[in-house]
Amino acid sequence: MRVHQAGDLDAAERLYGEVLELHAAQPDALHFLGVLAHQRGRSDEAVLLISSALKIIPKHPDAHNNLGNVHKECGRLADAERCYRRALACAPEHYQAQSNLAVVLEAQERLDEAFEAYSKLIQQAPTYAHGYHRLGLFLRNYAQNEEHLEQSAECFRQSYEHDPANVRALEGVGVALYMLHRHDEAADVYRQWLEREPDNPVPRHMLASCGATEAPPRAADDYVRDVFDGFAESFDEQLIQNLGYRAPEVLVGMLDEVTPADGASLDVLDAGCGTGLCAPLLRERARRLVGVDLSGGMVDKARLRGGYDALEVAELTAWLEAHPQAFDLIVSADTLVYFGQLGPVLAAAAGALRPGGWLGFTLEAVEGDGEVAELTSSGRYRHSRSYVEHLLAASGFDAVVVRGDTLRREAGKPVHGWVVRARRSHSPDGA
């Protein structure tokens, strides 16, 4: 267990195996080997191992909780809920199971039950910083009035008070204040944070996001890396289950109109691959599927999900420039929202595509006729349709299609975006 906790999965798996050779029904070895199997992407094996442990120790709350985690991360929410309820039946004060139960109730959009579960969590564990953070996100995600945003900000404050290392809680306070139109207060939170941690890229970027400093042309590498390395563990859960994230499906659906969905004939790049949500949607059309992302934590998750022939940790524009005419299709779901000025990255994408190759990406939308790229309080950029169309044409693309769609929810409201498809011209003059 010590080796496992230290992150040496090879040694831990060998040692658990040695224990089970000596005693095939040793329940802790079965349980924790199951946890390890899930960490390595062998989730079906994990279910069998932890279930075997529970036949021997049926009232073990941690094993029920961990089995629930496997089901939750595989999208089997009803199975996960049953496991968490069993854990709580064994140990009513098991606050991690209570937290996980609240999450799966929220993911099933049983919002009243989820709110009750989060509230019970805070009562059970009044110093549990992560519980306050979860409740803060819940209140912000489903805010119906200003009071909910006020409560969200207070939850984030409590989270930071109980865990000063959780700087994402300060970001939560600032975003909630900005959404309450208390822009000066939001800026003060980020300034105070930056005074305490002058080298932290997150408050520096968020100060710009609330208009207190000049917006950079794109989010700095260290900001993106810090945010997504810290977000990697809960990324899929927050986006898909709690925010109704649908950008990969919508984007690949548009590309189905122009690229073969099977036949494995294309060299495909998942640009800003994150945890690999696009991989299952792209795999059948890919002769070779490559993923690249700036966050090593996200790439580790993508590696566990599988489906890629290669994964790399790199800054996107420079990586594209280093791979001329290497791809037939480049897909980028919710990555270019961290670029204000799209010109350099679109030109690099054109260079990395073979003539006639396709680029597909999503952006958050600004309505109106002007050419607009603006940084928002979320830390992401929004772009106007005319800005996107102009830069694609200038970067050597034709056959441009820009469609409006809803990409996810935020603060209880749909986030409107652009789903974009464009073809690299066969020659510099577009012939």
UniProtKB/TrEMBL annotation:
TPR repeats lie at residues 27-60, 61-94, 95-128, 167-200. Coiled coil: none annotated. GO terms for molecular function: S-adenosylmethionine-dependent methyltransferase activity. Pfam families: Methyltransf_11, TPR_16, TPR_19. The keyword Iron does not apply. Transmembrane segments: none annotated. This is Methyltransferase type 11 domain-containing protein.
